[in-house]
Specification:
CATH superfamily of the largest domain: Type I PLP-dependent aspartate aminotransferase-like (Major domain)
CATH class of the largest domain: Alpha Beta
Oligomer: single chain
Radius of gyration: 21 Å
Strand order of the largest sheet: 1-9-8-5-4-2-3
Number of domains: 2
Number of strands: 12
Largest sheet: 7 strands, mixed
Order of helices and strands: HHHEHEHEHEHEEEEEHHEEHHHEH
Helix content: 25-40%
CATH architecture of the largest domain: 3-Layer(aba) Sandwich
Shape: globular
Length: 394
C-alpha cells in the first residue's frame, strides 16, 4: 500500500540516490567549491518553489516537521487558538499541541474539507489562525476561507500534506494562505519515503521557518556556524538522499496527477448509473489531485453494506484521520475542557458515517482507501472494479 509516486519508482530514483552516495556528501550542507557536493536539498527547494509559483521553499524531514516549522514561523504562541477541521490526519493536531497551540476543531462539508460556514462560530479573542486541510488531494474552498481570515485578521496555514500537485483556481495549493506545508511520505502524491516541504512568499516567514528547522540558523549557511543564531530551533533537516528521490519524483508530479485524473474520470463514468450515492463535492474540479474517489451514500446502512462487500470500510472507521478515533488527542482535549467525544461534530460524524474512499492513486487501508485501483491499473482492471462497485450497490 502506498501513494502513486511509489508505484512509479524506477531507475531514475535509484540513479539519483547512487549519485549522492558516490559523491560522499549525504548532509544537506557542503562547500559550493567542492565539485562532488551535489546540493540536492537546495535544488529540491528551488525547483519546488518554482513549481508552486512561490518565492521560497524549505525542505524538511516530514510533513509534520513542515507544520511545526510553519506554526513557529507564524509566531503562534502557547495558548493561541487555531481552527482545524474535524477530519484530517492526526499531525494537523499534534503539531499544534506540541507548540502549546490549541487546535479548535470545526465541521467539514460535503467536500470533506473545512466547512467555511462553521468557522466563525469557533472564533474567540484567542484565535490567531486557520488551518485549512486539502484533504485527500481536494482543495478547500479557499475563497471563502480567506474571506473569513481577512475579516477577522487571522493567519492561514494550508495543510497540503495530501495535496502536492493540487491547485485552486489556477494557483497551487500552499501559495494562497500565508504558508503551505507538504509531505513526501510514502502515502502521498509523490514521495521520498518521508520528508516534507514548506512554501511561502514572505521572506521573514521563510527565514524563521528555516531557523526553526535547523537549530536557529539563517538560510544558506555553509558548514558549521557558531554565534550567528538569533532564536531557538530544532533539527528537521532533510538529507541529500531524501532530496535526490524527491527531485526525481517532482519531475513526475504533473504526469502523475494527469494520469490519476484520467483514470478517475473513467471510473466515475463507469459507475454513473449506480444508485444510492453521490460523489464528493470538488471545490475546484480542475485542481483536485484525483488520488481518491469518495462516494457518500444516502444512508449509513447502505454505506456499511457496500464497504463490507468490497472489503473496505466507512470513513468514520478509518483510523487516525477522524477526530473521534484519536484517543490521545481526545484525552488532551478533555484536559483542556474542549469537546472530546464522538458526537461533538455531528455534521462531520454524519458525512463520514456514510462515506467511502475508493483508491485511485493512494492505496491506504488506514485512510479507508484499501479497495479500488491504482495509478498503474489497466482499463480492464478499472472496468472490473467499477463492475464490483455497481454490483455491491445493488
Amino acid at each position: 500500500m502506498a501513494g502513486p509516486g511509489a508505484y512509479w519508482f524506477g531507475k531514475e530514483e535509484a540513479d539519483a540516490v547512487n549519485r549522492v552516495m558516490q559523491s560522499g556528501h549525504l548532509f544537506r550542507y557542503g562547500s559550493e567549491t567542492d565539485p562532488k557536493f551535489l546540493h540536492t536539498v537546495a535544488s529540491l527547494e528551488n525547483e519546488f518553489a518554482k513549481y508552486c509559483g512561490a518565492k521560497f521553499a524549505l525542505a524538511t524531514s516530514s510533513g509534520t516537521a513542515s507544520l511545526v516549522a510553519s506554526l513557529a514561523a507564524l509566531g503562534l504562541q502557547p495558548g493561541d487558538e487555531i481552527i482545524v477541521p474535524a477530519y484530517t490526519f492526526v499531525a494537523s493536531y499534534t503539531s499544534c499541541i506540541f507548540l502549546g497551540i490549541i487546535p479548535v476543531l470545526s465541521e467539514i462539508d460535503e467536500s470533506l474539507t473545512l466547512d467555511p460556514d462553521d468557522i466563525e462560530r469557533h472564533i474567540t479573542s484567542h484565535t490567531r489562525a486557520i488551518m485549512p486541510v486539502h484533504m485527500l488531494g481536494n482543495p478547500c474552498d479557499m475563497d471563502r476561507i480567506m474571506a473569513v481570515a481577512k475579516k477577522h485578521k487571522l493567519l492561514v496555514l494550508e495543510d497540503c500534506c495530501q495535496a502536492a500537485g493540487a491547485s485552486y483556481k489556477m494557483k497551487k495549493v500552499g501559495t494562497i494562505g500565508d504558508m503551505g506545508a507538504f509531505s513526501l511520505n510514502v502515502f502521498k502524491t509523490i514521495n521520498s519515503g518521508d520528508g516534507g516541504l514548506v512554501v511561502t512568499n514572505d521572506q521573514n516567514l521563510y527565514e524563521t521557518a528555516f531557523a526553526m528547522h535547523d537549530q536557529g540558523h539563517k538560510p544558506s549557511r555553509l558548514g558549521v556556524e557558531v554565534g550567528s543564531r538569533n532564536l531557538l530551533g530544532l533539527n528537521f533537516r532533510m538529507n541529500e538522499l531524501t532530496a535526490a528521490v524527491g527531485l526525481v519524483q517532482l519531475g513526475k508530479l504533473d504526469m502523475i496527477v494527469t494520469t490519476l485524473r484520467e483514470k478517475r474520470k473513467k471510473f466515475k463514468n463507469l459507475i454513473a448509473d449506480a444508485k444510492g450515492f453521490k460523489l464528493r463535492t470538488l471545490n475546484d474540479p480542475d485542481g483536485d489531485c484525483a488520488t481518491i474517489c469518495t462516494v457518500t451514500f444516502d444512508n449509513r446502512e447502505q454505506a456499511l453494506k457496500v464497504s463490507k462487500i468490497l472489503g473496505s470500510k466507512t470513513l468514520d472507521e478509518s483510523g487516525w484521520h477522524v477526530y473521534a478515533n484519536m484517543e490521545h488527542v481526545l484525552e488532551y482535549l478533555k484536559k483542556i475542557g474542549r469537546p472530546h467525544k464522538k458526537g461533538a461534530y455531528p455534521k462531520t460524524d454524519n458525512i463520514l458515517s456514510r462515506a467511502m474512499n475508493i483508491s485511485i492513486g493512494v492505496v491506504d487501508g488506514g485512510l479507508g482507501a484499501g479497495w479500488g485501483i491504482n495509478i498503474n491499473s489497466s482499463d480492464s482492471e478499472i472496468e472490473s472494479a467499477a463492475d464490483q462497485f455497481i454490483e455491491a450497490c445493488r
